[in-house]
Specification:
The complex is a heterodimer of chains A (233) and B (409). Chain A is an alpha/beta fold and 233 residues long. Helix content of chain A is 33%, strand content 28%. Chain A has a single domain, classed as Rossmann fold (3-Layer(aba) Sandwich). Chain B is an alpha+beta fold. The chains are: A alpha/beta (233), B alpha+beta (409).
């Protein structure tokens, strides 16, 4: 599903440059649920951005679902993001003047889907996250957990191969966090590949594999026994 | 461009940010309002000029004789200049190709009567061409013709006012009117747009007037129109050369300003042309200035809008929005705001002109208004202006990097 070899990335800072990723090798198979951990500055967000085609590596190889991701035009990158990737952010990143339904339908709009079809599909996914009754509400009328569910529905709407989550529970209280994690686990059970950046041990332990980064290299890559989130709910 | 969903997106964005959109549109509305009013006023001034010249041919040259003020070639100061019939041939021989119509004229004031009704009228002995020079319209019968001139026919054409005053409920055509004791057959009635004074006149073949009231070939003045294809500079030069030749013919000093006077409409036309031209330039400069101010204002606010929406644009890009779709959203939003705001300004301007227009006539502003072609032109200009105003911000928006926009801060 995902193959990364000798990935390097550095950012210029004034005259010198900051070497953030120093040769990352990572393979993710279909159906995996991977947590990327590390302290701030370890390069975990940069890695996620490169995997999410929001940023480009300086050198190394990145193959997503058999497609090499290199020197893409902006247009092509947009198409790939839309087709292959679903994003879940710490701060939800919903568009505040659009209703929950419209937010979920947005990736489908960029796919060129017809309005009616789009809305039906968006409604289906909203129902899946249990928010069918909140379809006409604006983000500001929703709680944090509900907002993240809308974001998950939006990430799922285009039926992506890979779900990327950047600290999906970072802005939520413990109970809501477990709620969301239970839902993400359910998605993984259904076969969705999930990659998640987190710095919380208990959240990471709810994945099936933990990759630990430090100073731009992978320190540890272990399979773990998944802790089910339902037991806390 | 005609993607319904794109429009829906744009209207949603405009609608959700109503205050912001209103404020950005306001500059343009005001600019166009000002422009429309100024333009209308300038048009009004132009109309006033036009009307001042009336319906007389505005390519007229009138030549009056006078008395010499400088002794020349043995002639004393104060010699009277008398035009004669031959002067017409003199001018036509020399300048025929530049003359459109020509008439010599003899003026008399005579008592007129018909069946007991009496009054005094100005009687003008003229050539048939006079009809075109004065822009007379024959209402009944006919005008004076060449045949009348050759036969010194005792016929007259009377103005509408003369008809009303002397011929009460009688058709004057074919009737005989008494002028200074001599009967003349009325062959026509004419009207003149310039009003009562010009319709209170009786026309007669010039040969008849000369024969009956002096038995000479004297002419009071000469009136001609120059070829309308000449511009005002050429026409002024033409007038001067006529004057020079006549001065030579009558042995008048070149610098004698009184012996032969020539009134050339081109003088006024030229001044009016210069005035209208400078007015147009001023209006255009002001118009463009205000429009540019409006564009800069919109552009400014759109840049701010893009900055404000950085995160949203980043989200859209992360969800698969192409740079092109981002550009269209910003560009079309800018065009819509500019066009709608401008159009409101234009309508308001036209409205103001309609409302206060009639009361402005005192200030020499007649029928101020904005033409349809200007409205269409302005609309197109506004759309282009909106595109220009939106271009930079849209370009900026399309360059937004999603990771920068989505950074948690």
């Amino acid at each position: 599903m995902l193959k990364i070899q000798q990935l390097h990335k550095s950012y210029p800072i004034g005259d010198s440059s900051l070497h953030v990723l120093k040769g990352i090798d990572l393979n993710v198979e279909e159906g995996e649920m991977v947590a990327i951990m590390g302290s701030s500055g370890s390069g975990k967000s940069t890695l996620l951005n490169i995997i999410g085609i929001l940023d480009e590596a300086d050198s190394g190889e990145y193959i997503l679902d058999g497609l090499p991701i290199k020197n893409l035009t902006e247009k092509k990158a947009a198409v790939y993001r839309n087709k292959f990737l679903g994003f879940i952010f710490q701060s939800f990143n919903l568009i505040n003047y659009k209703t929950a339904l419209e937010n979920v339908a947005l990736p489908l709009y960029y796919q060129g889907m017809k309005r009616k079809e789009r809305q039906e599909k968006a409604m289906f996914h909203l129902d899946k996250v249990g928010l069918a009754n909140w379809a006409k509400h604006l983000p500001k009328e929703l709680s944090g957990g509900q907002k993240q569910r809308v974001a998950i529905a939006r990430a799922l709407a285009a039926n992506p191969k890979l779900l990327l989550a950047d600290e999906p529970t970072g802005a939520l209280d413990t109970k809501t966090s477990h709620d969301i994690m239970a839902f993400i686990q359910k998605l993984n059970d259904e076969g969705k590949t999930i990659l998640m950046v987190t710095h919380e041990e208990d959240i990471a332990n709810m994945c099936k594999r933990i990759v630990r980064l430090r100073d731009g290299v992978i320190m540890e890559d272990t399979k773990v026994n998944q802790v089910r989130a339902e037991q806390y709910v | 461009m005609f993607d319904l969903d794109l429009w829906r997106e744009i209207f949603q964005s405009i609608n959700k940010n109503r205050t912001r959109s209103l404020l950005s549109g306001f500059t343009v509305t005001f600019a166009i309002l000002l422009f429309a009013i100024l333009f209308g006023i300038a048009n009004g001034l132009k109309n006033t000029f036009k009307e001042a010249f009336g319906t007389d041919a505005n390519n007229s040259i009138i030549i009056f004789p006078g008395r010499t003020s400088i002794a020349h070639k043995g002639n004393q100061v104060g010699k009277r200049i008398q035009f004669k019939n031959e002067d017409r041939d003199f001018i036509l021989d020399k300048f025929g190709d530049k003359v459109q119509f020509f008439t010599s004229k003899v003026n008399k004031n005579l008592n007129a009567s018909f069946q007991g009704e009496k009054n005094t009228y100005e009687v003008r002995g003229v050539y048939p061409e006079y009809m075109f020079i004065e822009n007379n319209v024959v209402k009944d019968g006919r005008y004076i013709n060449q045949h009348d001139i050759e036969n010194r026919a005792k016929v007259v054409v009377i103005g509408q006012v003369v008809e009303n005053e002397l011929f009460y409920k009688v058709n004057p055509i074919g009737k005989y009117i008494n002028l200074g004791g001599i009967p003349y057959k009325v062959v026509g009635v004419f009207t003149d747009d310039e009003g009562d004074n010009e319709e209170k006149v009786i026309y007669m073949p010039i040969s008849t007037t000369q024969f009956i009231y002096g038995n000479n070939d004297f002419v009071d003045l000469m009136h001609l129109t120059y070829n309308p294809e000449m511009n005002s500079d050429q026409a002024l030069a033409f007038g001067n050369s006529i004057k020079r030749s006549l001065k030579e013919k009558f042995e008048v000093a070149r610098n004698d300003q009184r012996a032969i006077r020539l009134f050339n409409m081109a003088q006024g036309t030229k001044q009016a042309d210069i005035m209208t031209f400078s007015l147009t330039v001023i209006i255009l400069v002001i118009g463009f200035g205000t429009l540019i101010a409006g564009i800069v204002g919109i552009s400014n606010i759109m840049i701010f809008i893009v900055k404000e929406r950085t995160k949203e644009i980043g989200i859209r890009k992360a969800l698969g929005a192409s740079p092109r779709s981002i550009v269209s959203i910003i560009l079309i939003e800018s065009i819509i705001i500019t066009a709608v705001a401008g159009y409101i300004g234009l309508l308001a301007g036209v409205g103001v002109l309609e409302l206060v227009g009639p009361s402005l006539e005192v200030y020499f502003i007649k029928d101020p208004g904005v033409s349809n072609s200007l409205v269409i032109g302005a609309t197109i200009t506004l759309v282009i202006a909106g595109a220009i105003a939106g271009y930079l911000p849209a370009k900026k928006a399309s360059k937004i990097k999603p990771i920068v926009a989505l950074r948690n801060d």
